[in-house]
Model the fold of this input.
Amino acid sequence: MDNWDTPQNILVILAHPDDPEFFCGATLALWARAGHRITYQLLTCGDKGFNDSTPADMTPDALCAIRHAEQLAAAKVIGVEAVHFMDCPDGYLIPDLNTRLNIVRVIRKFKPDIVVTCDPQTLFATYGINHPDHRAAGQVVLDAVFPAAGS
Done:
């Protein structure tokens, strides 16, 4: 960025609710407090985030609603102006043409100065892995930036 003195439009495109805060929450909060406009576009609803402590009667739809509410509350603390959910199925995100076209539309609509996503090649050192949705999100966003640029 050449000019951080004027407010920038920042579009954060990541796979799951909670990814923005987990990956770069402090940076986003700093940017928001500096006057930059931040919008989230989350690609899945996180409806598969079950673990041993999840109540037995929890359904994917109920979990999706909880994840949306938690994400909206977290984004408010960060200073995010808007949160949008694409609600692709959690765990099944693929960087296909349809997803890319949807992201191109989002980029063209919001006209960001900065797009934040994850690196599709990053592997966590301890395990040598990364969630497939994170890799797919990073790849499809990188693929979408090119046709969206300049328009």
Notes: The CA atoms of residues 42 and 85 lie 5 Å apart.
